[in-house]
Write a structure and sequence with these properties.
Rossmann fold; alpha/beta; disordered C terminus; disordered N terminus; elongated; 35% helix; three-stranded antiparallel beta sheet; single chain; six-stranded parallel beta sheet; binds 2'-O-acetyl adenosine-5-diphosphoribose; 10 helices; NAD+ binding; SIR2/SIRT2 'Small Domain'; cytoplasm; 2 domains
Length: 257
């Protein structure tokens, strides 16, 4: 007999089946199995000598816009080549099986929507979009613009990726949605996130204070682990499908990838 990848506690399954509201916070760990490196993983190739924390800042962009734009162009390419994995697809299934699921993600890769999730709150933006670095509005670069970075078609300022950098505020509407979901849920999943970056990391504690049960799915211990009622150690792409199959049966309603 082959062991299940991780033990799924029965009481978690019951809580999941009966939940009236579920908030799910995901981080880059859920996309690791799609080949998108996690934020704090060592970078490879040309970018190995740079720290992500030193490139994803307004100061880095002001100092060297070309370098920062090229780093994002490289990451955007990785994201475009990636496909959603069974972890993303299991969360899309969850949304179909339980009412009131809000998926809050720190990921900028758009893989949750590509897996079929619809109620997605992107807290840190989306790498596939660009915005004007001065006017802060989302725009498409002109097709004939070969500059690096390209310039805003409206005002000529540099374009930048539409993501949140270290030291920048989160988009207000998205953060309010996330906070409301955390405060209203009875089950809060924290999946594939190190829980090191505020204010996203505090959402689980808001949920806990409002009476929710916390379930963590992560291959490692995190600062949130001591607060979690359920610790599912393992890869999200294995644990989540196993959990959904246990809770909702084998027919998970094939979402494409
Ligand atoms: P991190 O790189 O900090 O953490 C990734 C987490 O995923 C770690 O806790 C790993 O143990 C876990 N992990 C890795 N592979 C996994 C797998 N297959 N299944 C389950 N867990 C796995 O990434 P984040 O927590 O997403 O923000 O980082 C949060 C934010 O920090 C990012 O959105 C980024 C950065 O600041 C901004 O750029 C604003």
């Amino acid at each position: 007999m082959v062991d299940a990848p991780v033990g799924i506690p029965e009481s978690l399954v019951t809580t999941l089946q009966n939940a009236r509201g579920i908030a799910v916070l995901t981080g880059s760990g859920i996309s690791a199995e799609s080949g998108v490196p996690t934020f704090r993983d060592a970078q490879t190739g040309l970018w190995a000598r740079y720290e992500p924390q030193e490139l994803a800042t307004p100061e880095a962009f002001a100092r060297d816009p070309r370098l920062v734009w090229e780093w994002y162009a490289w990451r955007r390419e990785l994201v475009e080549q990636a496909v959603p994995n069974p972890g993303h697809r299991a969360l899309a299934v969850l949304e179909n099986r339980v009412p009131g699921v809000v998926l809050i993600t720190q990921n900028v890769d758009g893989l949750h929507r590509r897996a079929g999730s619809q109620n997605v709150t992107e807290l840190h933006g989306n790498i596939t979009r660009s915005k004007c670095s001065v006017e802060e509005v989302v725009v498409e670069p002109r097709e004939d613009d070969t500059d690096v970075p390209p310039s805003c078609p409206n005002c000529g300022a540099f374009l930048r990726p539409d993501v949140v950098w270290f030291g920048e505020a989160l988009p207000v509407r998205e953060f309010e949605e996330a906070l409301e979901a955390a405060r209203d849920c009875d089950l809060f999943f924290s999946i594939g996130t190190s829980g090191l970056v505020q204010p996203a990391a505090s959402l689980a504690l808001d949920a806990l204070r409002n009476g929710a049960v916390i379930a963590e799915i992560n291959s490692n211990q995190t600062p949130l682990s001591p607060y979690a009622e359920y610790l599912l150690r393992g890869r999200a792409g294995e644990v989540l499908p196993a959990l959904m199959e246990t809770a909702f049966g084998r027919d998970l309603g094939g979402h494409g990838g």
